[in-house]
């Protein structure tokens, strides 16, 4: 009888426990559940299927044809059957035909080759786009995670600041009871404590909103009790900006996918040019035709067809010129992407350097604020200082600690952005 209440307590405890997620776990889940990654996977599959289908023109083609013909104006004559059958079928109104053909294209001016290479370039382009989308997903989850983690530590900073204001309020009240402090000192300390409490509540809500963004990216239920955990340390990354640019130009998916697009459009241009060449086909054909539903008379033939349109309007010429313009436009787009990548890496690298310098300066500011607060608190405690100086030093210390925490998580997000635009640490 005592087991049931015990089990109920365990279940209740587990249901109220917030399970923590680390950055590695968040990244793994984000990659698994991302809708845009799943969408791009299907796009890649479609392009692969299209590429496989381009093998068909290289294979022989087999056609079967069956037909029934009834003459409405009199008897008909089947001239492609044997002599005996032709004699028998003079004056026949009904005729049945069955034909089988095996054909193979001997020459098409490079059309088949161009379509196959075009399909291959399309597959490679979509695979590169998949890599680029994956990098975007990684950056989104890293940015959201570090922002939430930073706001979580800011909550701790403000909780610590609130505890200090409580301590100052308690000290001021005790000094007032001893007749050392004035009533206004207690009121100022109380106002400062209430302000710190309000700021703590606001920081808690900011953290909850940041946490909901992480949950959204991980497709977790909004009401599900989840938390994040991890150390908010200074990022460690050393590299030269020019090295990052040179490396990104070679391997960044945005650039690689556009290179594949140029290759694909070159094949489209070659496909359009093939319309200026003749088409040569070889056929092996057997035809059966007589008055019976299952024809008996047959004829066998081997054909070589030569087709060349002498005139079909101006479409061929302008289609070729349009395809050439597409190639030139894609090349210009490629150069623009390279220019944008260079600029993005340069600016993002400077942002990262600025964020690291901010961390260094805020860390120094915290050290100075701690020294200043300890001095003011010690003087006020022994009756040498005033309450305004103490409260101001407490505010300066709380703000300095909060700014340090904020600068550290912003430095981590700046590094994540640099990793995105320079395509580093993406595995």
Describe the structure.
There is one protein chain. The chain has 427 residues and is α+β, with helices and mostly antiparallel strands. It has a single domain (21-60, 108-278, 314-422), classed as Outer membrane efflux proteins (OEP) (Up-down Bundle). The chain is 67% helix and 12% strand. Strands 2-3-5-6 form a four-stranded antiparallel beta sheet, with no helix packed on it. A hairpin with a 7-residue loop joins strand 5 and strand 6 (298-307). Helix 5 (111-177) packs antiparallel against helix 10, helix 8 packs antiparallel against helix 9 (315-381) and helix 9 runs antiparallel to helix 10 (387-422). The two termini are 54 Å apart.
Note the total helix count.
Answer: 10
The name of the CATH superfamily reads Outer membrane efflux proteins (OEP)
Question: Which sequence of strands runs across the widest sheet?
Answer: 2-3-5-6
Could you say what the CATH topology is called? Outer membrane efflux proteins (OEP)
Q: Averaged pLDDT, please?
A: 88
Q: Can you tell me the number of structural domains?
A: 1
The CATH architecture is Up-down Bundle
The termini sit apart by: 54 Å
Dominant shape: elongated
Q: What is the H/E order? A: HEHHEHEHHEHHEEHH
Return the structural class.
alpha+beta
| Helix amount | 55-70%
Strand content: 5-15%
CATH class: Mainly Alpha
Biggest β-sheet description: 4 strands, antiparallel
Radius of gyration, in Å, reads: 39 Å
Unreliable stretches, pLDDT < 50, 5 or more residues?
A: 1-17, 80-89
Secondary structure: number of strands: 6
């Amino acid at each position: 009888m005592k087991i049931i209440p015990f089990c109920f307590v365990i279940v209740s405890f587990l249901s109220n426990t917030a399970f923590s997620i680390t950055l590695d776990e968040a990244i793994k889940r984000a990659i698994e559940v991302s809708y845009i990654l799943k969408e791009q996977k299907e796009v890649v599959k479609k392009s692969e299927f299209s590429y496989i289908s381009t093998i068909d023109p290289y294979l022989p083609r087999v056609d079967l044809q069956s037909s029934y013909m009834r003459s409405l104006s009199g008897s008909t004559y089947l001239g492609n059957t044997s002599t005996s059958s032709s004699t028998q079928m003079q004056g026949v109104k009904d005729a049945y035909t069955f034909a089988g053909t095996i054909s193979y294209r001997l020459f098409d001016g490079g059309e088949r080759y161009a379509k196959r290479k075009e399909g291959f370039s399309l597959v490679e382009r979509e695979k590169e786009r998949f890599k680029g989308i994956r990098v975007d997903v990684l950056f989104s989850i890293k940015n959201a995670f570090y922002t939430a983690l930073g706001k979580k530590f800011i909550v701790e900073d403000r909780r610590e600041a609130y505890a200090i204001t409580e301590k100052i309020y308690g000290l001021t009240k005790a000094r007032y009871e001893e007749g050392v402090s004035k009533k206004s000192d207690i009121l100022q300390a109380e106002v400062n404590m209430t302000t710190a409490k309000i700021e703590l509540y606001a920081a808690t809500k900011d953290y909850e909103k940041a946490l909901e963004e992480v949950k959204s990216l991980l497709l977790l239920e909004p009401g599900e009790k989840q938390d994040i955990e991890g150390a908010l340390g200074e990022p460690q990354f050393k590299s030269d900006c020019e090295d990052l640019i040179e490396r990104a130009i070679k391997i960044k998916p945005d650039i690689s996918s556009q290179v594949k697009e140029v290759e694909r459009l070159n094949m489209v241009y070659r496909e359009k040019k093939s319309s200026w060449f003749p088409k040569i086909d070889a056929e092996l054909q057997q035809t059966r035709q007589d008055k019976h539903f299952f024809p008996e008379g047959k004829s066998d033939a081997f054909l070589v067809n030569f087709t060349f349109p002498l005139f079909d309007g101006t479409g061929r010429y302008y289609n070729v010129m349009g395809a050439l313009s597409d190639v030139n436009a894609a090349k210009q787009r490629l150069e623009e992407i390279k220019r944008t990548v260079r600029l993005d890496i340069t600016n993002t690298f400077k942002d990262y350097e600025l964020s690291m310098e901010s961390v260094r300066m805020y860390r120094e500011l915290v050290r100075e604020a701690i020294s200043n607060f300890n001095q003011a608190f010690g003087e006020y405690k022994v009756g040498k200082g005033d309450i305004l100086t103490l409260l101001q030093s407490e505010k300066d210390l709380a703000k300095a600690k909060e700014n340090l925490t904020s600068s550290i998580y912003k430095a981590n997000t700046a590094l994540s952005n640099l990793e995105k635009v320079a395509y580093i640490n993406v595995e």
